[in-house]
Structure formats: structure tokens, C-alpha cells
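ok so for the tutorial part 2 we go from a plain amino acid sequence to predicted C-alpha cells. step 1 is just haveing the sequence, like this:
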Amino acid sequence: MLVAAVAYAFWPRATLVEVGEASRGPMQTTIDEEARTRLHEPFVVTAPVAGRLMRVAVEPGDSVKEGAVIARMRP
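step 2 — the prediction. this is what the C-alpha cells look like for a chain of 75 residues:
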């Protein structure tokens, strides 16, 4: 009886899964949340100017015209 109870306790259980249909096409993934990134190996990036880069207003895929301001620096 004890062996049967131990065998039942360790018997593999069925795992719930989602089923869907696969199709071919372009893959696009977006993340629409702000977060903080934690690096295991931090890197120091330097620039020949003093200041902080303000948040960039353009998004990936936006068209940019020549001479347009896309970023601002704060001293």
C-alpha cells in the first residue's frame, strides 16, 4: 500500500497547454510598457559632449526628415 502511495505521488501529471493554428507570415512583437533594465555587466558609454539625453520622441519605423530635431540634450 505504501509503495502504491509513493508511486501515485510521483506519477507524472498531465500539463495544460494552449492549442492554436500555425501560419506563415511576418513576425512583429511589441512591448508597450516602460521598465528598468538590470545589467549583470554594466558598461560605461561616453560621448564628447556634457549633458543628459532627453527622451527621444521618434519611434522605430517613423520617417525622419533631414535637419529635423529628434533628440535634445540637457546640460
